[in-house]
What does this fold into?
Amino acid sequence: MGECHASGPPRAPRGEPSQPSEYHNAVHRIGSFLVALALVPALGARAQTLPDLGESAQTELTPQAERRIGDAMMREIRRDPDFVADAEVSDYIQHVGFRLVAASPETRRHFEFFVVRDRTVNAFAMPGGYIGVHTGLLLAAQSESEFAGVLAHELAHVLQRHLARQYEAQSKATALSLAAFALAVLAARSNPQAAQAGIVAAQATPAAVYLNYSRDFEREADRVGYQILEASGYDPAGMPAFFERLQKATRLYENNAPVYVRTHPLTTERIADMQNRQASAPYRQRPDSHEFQLVRAKLRVADGRPEDAVAYFRTALAERRFADEAAVRYGYAAALARAGDFKAADAEIALLRKKAPPHPMYETLAARIKAGTGDLAGAERALAAAGQAYPDVFAIKAERAEILQRLGRHKEAAAALDGLIKQRPGEARLYQALARSYAAVGARTQQHRALAEAYYLQGSVPAAIEQLQLAQSAGDSDFYTLSAVDARMRELKRIQLEELKERRK
Ligand SMILES: [Zn+2]
It folds into this structure.
């Protein structure tokens, strides 16, 4: 980290708009972003791969192009150490997200919801239906309906194609390339503060930092988002309640407003609109799900120093300051485990099992505690049993595969990982883990074959082809595996050719 990989200064937008407009300003903001990118190491590293999207400007952002940009951005985000790959956290947010999608008019489009470790309160929509949430937002929400309200608002930005409409409107005047647009969106959404620091260093105005949606788009996202929230069964009052609190915080901190408010300007008018809608809606208070509280506890445990997390949950239990006692006890056990006090953590888990109905997240934590004491074999047995009780829970199987690897039982680990890949074929890290297990047992063809898929998912077709060549010449495989490698090679070469054609356009 801390190294700038940007190959050169980012390109400035070509041409100048003839008429000053709202989009004129937006484009200048994008220009400032590109200046900032050269100065912000993390974003500079991203700049290296995104221009693969093609250099030429387009006047229209088709759903296919949107998906391509979104996929490319997502590949970069997945590599970011702050991307939360934790299956329990990501399963939860996908669950809430798809509950909202099911209540929306468009259930068949591609959506993916993900979490980024960042204390700022923010959520953002990217092209292609990718919606990200900062851990800070999950922790700041006072109810699950508040959290779902922000997610519904972002979902509405996607459904109404706001990013695409913004791009199409600005590109007529300035011919900004897709890559530059993607970079600007990525910079604005992923790290406005770093981008801002970069801009200050470049002596540009800090006010020109973010890529805002227009007020009309915000109003539309409120309206559509509210309808979705209402239809999904969450309490629609959650949306204005959260926005109102954000607005109050903004007034309090002036220059240090929550990031969400800076990227989605809140007005008194917007909040009044939402409250009017709410006044005509039936009263419906919905209790928070246990998973909402468990996931928040898990995120809080991972945040900051372990001893602070222990103190936080211990105090909450002692003062009986909680809405969900089992979730707080779970948090306490997890915090103790993180602090290395496995004995106390184990006692808390035992108490939890006695007092609360069973839950798969208790099983994975109990296994992590066992593994922490050095009893890897016991942890594996516990996870195998939990896998029988909860056959659909991905996190239990993922945890078990990891323990099997640590035990050196790589044949079983490879089998477990194969099963996980069938469930989630898009996750590069599963293929990387599979390659490690194959390497450990000396299965070289399979090792390179798995690495090829990992590279492919990370967007590098040439590196994937190289791995397949290594697989072909490894000489330790049967006829059927080799035919599969050959077939995959043909497919990747075809994809490579298409990508080259696309780039020459
Ligand atoms: Zn918005």
In short: DSSP finds 25 helices and three strands in the chain. The first strand starts at residue 112 and ends at 116. Confidence is low (pLDDT under 50) at residues 1-52, 192-210. The pocket of zinc ion is lined by residues 153, 157, 213, 218, 221, 264 (CB under 6 Å).
